[in-house]
Amino acid sequence: MIPKYSMNPWHYVNYGPEAPRIVTSVIEIPQGSQAKYELDKESGMLRLDRVLFSAVHYPANYGFIPQTYCDDKDPLDILVLCSINVEPLCLIESKVIGVMHMIDGGETDDKIISVAAHDASVNHFNDISELPQHMLMQIRRFFEDYKKLEKKQVIVEEFQGKEKAYQVVEDSIKMYKEHFPQHDDPKL
Prior knowledge:
Elements: H1 9-12, E1 22-29, E2 35-39, E3 46-51, E4 61-65, E5 76-81, E6 91-104, E7 107-108, E8 111-116, H2 133-149, E9 154-161, H3 162-179
Parallel strand pairs: 5-8
Antiparallel strand pairs: 1-4, 1-6, 2-3, 4-5, 6-7, 6-8, 6-9
């Protein structure tokens, strides 16, 4: 019998030995996609949640940090800036540079902003304050606009730097360990 959560990247991929500075990201959605894929929590497979029907596309590779848990009952979301579109379920070592605080349907839904650690075109960025303003505007507008067309309210509150992002990552790791103690194995 296959145990519950077997091979599920949320539970059986580690967030990385250098967390919260560098984390392992599991990509669900490639940059440029209009498909909203989401991890099926039970099977570990990707599910097509919906197709964005607005004229927007994901401004970065989008996924989650494994072995994290947040107030919205999901793993911690992460955007990974990279010079290429990354295939779904690919693991990327991601350098955390900031966080976007967002309220989605009345719940906190923070998004970690990172750069691909092994992509020389972006890995020189060390803090969100170093990104061009238009990149931050694109990220903000993407989340505001695609939800608006679905008649859902999203409030992008603010962007903060890497120190605040590190705290968000650490808090989500702690919450995961509290909610899923059976997966608290440092060898994973």
